[in-house]
Amino acid sequence: MKYNNIYKIDTENKRTKSEKNKILIILISILTIILLLIILIYSIDTIKRYDVYKDYEAQLISLNEEEQKKQEQIAIEQENLRQAKIPKLTEEGIQNVEKIYNSETKRVFLTFDDGPSTVTTTILDILKQQNIKATFFVLGSRVEAMPEVVARMYEEGHYIANHGYSHVYETIYASPQSVLDEFNKCNDAVKTAINVPEYNSHLFRFPGGLVGGKYAEIKAQAKSLLNQNNIVNVDWNALIGDSEKNNATVEFLLQRMKETVGTKNSVVILMHDAQAKKTTVDALPQVIQYLREQGYEFKNFYDIIK
Q1: Among 130, 142, 136, which residue's Cα sits nearest to residue 155?
Q2: What would the pLDDT profile of 257-304 be if each residue is shown by its tens digit?
Q3: For the chain, what are the domain ranges?
Q4: Which of 162, 119, 110 is nearest to 141 (CA)?
Q5: Between residues 15 and 102, which one has the greater pLDDT?
Q6: 28-53: per-residue pLDDT in tens?
Q7: What is the pTM of this model?
Q8: Are the CB atoms for 204 and 232 separated by under 8 Å?
Q9: pLDDT band at residue 11, thresholds of 50, 70 and 90?
Q10: What superfamily in CATH does domain 91-303 come from?
Q11: Which of 167, 242, 272, 273 is catalytic?
Q12: Angle at the Cα of 163 from the Cα atoms of 152 and 187, rounded to 5 degrees
């Protein structure tokens, strides 16, 4: 009887142990399945996250590429605009200057000599209000004195041409080479003022005009020398008479302008940008109004030198 009990107990122990092992195995299996599911879910989530990251990265790269292209395009456009304001004298431009007084349509070039001066900003204000681009034949000495005004001329699309450096006849007309030297000295001053190292107007106006006077022979030789250096010159075929007498009235200036413009189709008007020429500024709006009423289109030398 005693042995039977021992056997029975041992059998039950084995059965219990076996059942525990089965439960343990089941638990381990369940835990393994759960762990595998966790790993699978994590892997799927990681893959999704990676895909999202790659999509974001691709979008970011695309946006960066688009922004880079946009910036490159802006830079190209800015450089094109910058280059468009740097005169480049071609054979066509030379021919255009030579034929400046000939045109089938009515056009007018407003030109101002001797500046910049204390009245230049007012001239620029009027031109801006009237949406007109003019041509300024500046003096190098005045450019050095008022570089910020010259920079404004340039920024607002006016043509910065060359009238020499000193405007002292004995100096500028000492020789043909001195004329070229004055052109270069003035051009250097303009480059500095507008911060465009490669700027060259290629356009000169002889102080006092090209024709006649005691320096006529020097001027003729200087013109040839300037041409050899890719520089052309232009005078005028109309004026407002602001250098003909002191304290000229607005009425006088308007009358002289009307007389000298006459019935010409292509007009280059001489005016002066100087402190003593305040009446010129006063007359300018009426000059513009009259020319518009006569059907003239306003041009500057960017339309000629190209």
Answers
A1: 136
A2: 999 999 999 999 999 999 999 999 999 999 999 999 999 999 999 999
A3: 1-84, 91-303
A4: 162
A5: 102
A6: 888 888 878 788 787 787 787 777 77
A7: 0.81
A8: yes
A9: low
A10: Glycoside hydrolase/deacetylase (3.20.20.370)
A11: 272
A12: 65
Identify whether 167 is a catalytic site residue.
no
Distances in whole angstroms, Cα of residue 6 to Cα of each of 18, 19, 20, 295: 18, 20, 21, 133
96 vs 107: CA distance, rounded Å: 13
**Closest listed residue to residue 182, CA positions, set 215, 149, 135:** 215
Mean pLDDT over all residues of the chain?
92
Task: State the catalytic residue, choosing from 51, 113, 114, 235.
Answer: 113
The answer to whether 242 is a known catalytic residue is no
In angstroms and rounded to an integer, the radius of gyration of the C-alpha atoms of the chain is 42
- Separation of alpha carbons 56 and 287, rounded Å: 63
Q: Which residues pair with 268 in a beta bridge?
A: 109
Q: Which are the contacts of 160, defined by CB distance < 8 A and separation ≥ 6?
A: 136, 138, 150, 153, 154, 190, 194, 199, 201
Q: What is the 3-state secondary structure (H, E, C) of the chain?
A: CHHHHHHHHHHHHHHHHHHHHHHHHHHHHHHHHHHHHHHHHHHHHHHHHHHHHHHHHHHHHHHHHHHHHHHHHHHHHHHHHHHHCCCCCCHHHHHHHHCCCCCCCCEEEEEEECCCCCCHHHHHHHHHHHCCCCEEEECHHHHHHCHHHHHHHHHCCCEEEECCCCCCHHHHCCCHHHHHHHHHHHHHHHHHHHCCCCCCCCEECCCCCCCCCCCHHHHHHHHHHHHHCCCEECCCCEECCCCCCCCCCHHHHHHHHHHHHCCCCEEEEEEECCCCCHHHHHHHHHHHHHHHHCCCEEECHHHCCC
